Amino acid sequence: MSVEDSIDEQLFEIMDFLKPRHLTLPISLPHLAMLRWLYRNPALSISAAAEYSQVSQSAMTQAAQKLEREGWVVRRRDDTDQRVVWISLTPEGRKHVESVEAMQHERLRRLIACLDNTDKENLSQILAKIQQTLRQKEGLS
User: Fold this and answer.
1) Phi and psi of 77, rounded to 5°?
2) Long-range contact pairs involving 123-131 (C-beta distance under 8 Å, separation at least 24)
3) pTM for this structure?
4) Distance of CA 94 to the CA centre of its chain
5) Residue pLDDT, tens place only, 74-91
6) Less Cβ around it within 10 Å: N or C end of the chain?
7) Inter-axis angle of helices 46-53 and 57-69, to 10 degrees?
């Protein structure tokens, strides 16, 4: 097995461990991912959210409608272009995202508890390099 294959397997197992499990939320993981994206981006157009989620605009519209019915997002038309619909989190939606993120942060803390401070700093630096490369490839930096 190559080093790259080993890294791929390791990352898969870590990401699987960090996935939210046993949620009492009446939504799917893709919907939760959208809520988490909205948490970091206070308002997104339906088209931007669809692009991020790699789904059609109609699928994103349906997802936004479901999340709006749950009381977790609010939709509003753009003031200057009525074709554009913006979505943003409600306080209830923020509360749910914060709850899930707290659970994942605790899982991550447990996962890296075996590392000493030097290892944690090295891991942080390596992840920062990978993140920088990712942002450059996606034109985010």
Assistant:
1) -80, 150
2) none
3) 0.72
4) 13
5) 999 988 988 888 999 999
6) N
7) 110
Nearest 10 degrees: Cα torsion 56, 61, 65, 68: 100
- Cα 113 to Cα 13, 89, 119: the distances in Å are 17, 33, 10
Q: What is the DSSP letter of 2?
A: -
Domains of the chain: 3-137 (1.10.10.10)
Write the burial class of residue 44 (CB in 10 Å: 0-12 exposed, 13-18 middle, 19+ buried): buried
User: Taking a C-beta distance cutoff of 8 angstroms, is the pair 105, 113 a contact?
Assistant: no
pLDDT digits (tens, 9 = 90+) for 103-122: 888 889 998 999 999 999 99
